[in-house]
Amino acid sequence: MSKAISRRDFLKVSGAVGAAGLLAACGGSGNAGSTATSTAASSAASVAGLSSDPVTLTMSWWGGESRHNAYQEAIKAFMAKNSTITINPTFAAWSGWEDTMSTKFAGGVAEDVCQINWNWLYNYSKSGQTFIDLNSVTDYLDLTQWDEAKLAACNVANAQQCVPVSMTGRIFYWNKTTFDKAGISYPTTLDELMAAGKTFQEKLGDDYYPLHLGAYDRM
Question: Taking the chain, what is the end-to-end CA distance rounded to the nearest angstrom?
């Protein structure tokens, strides 16, 4: 093999996404109706075992105007470097997007490359079958370029369902007055947080919780 697709090239087509963004390869539609117009001379052809014939791929994501612009610029840069590959994008705002994609996943008609949330792996690919197992394409995509722990978070049923585009973390603010009232220190581990829940219920009643998460915090 003369060349593998680099992490930089793979991510270039994705742009920079928000919290815990992931890219998954879906096994649905492979053509959006347009044809590639590039010549056969392409950097993609230098990847051993890959066809030099023109190919069209579809890609989907949600977001705001800044993300849409960044992704489309990234796609242009990717296609300029890989002249036999045409990428047709589909994108919109978040509202209603998960419902749209869940229908596509169920029908096997999702785009070839999809931006997903990490929890979608377990909602829509519980058996590791919805998205292509990236372990099967390691001749072309070098997964060792990603941190093993981050890859493990994207693995379902021993199938590498996606790769992380970006990672994020949460900042917790504790109401010290309430914890003092319960007679405990604020938690620093998950076990301490779970134990705090029982203490809150016992000492403060059912209306008190040590942690509150909003609907979008699952994302």
Answer: 38
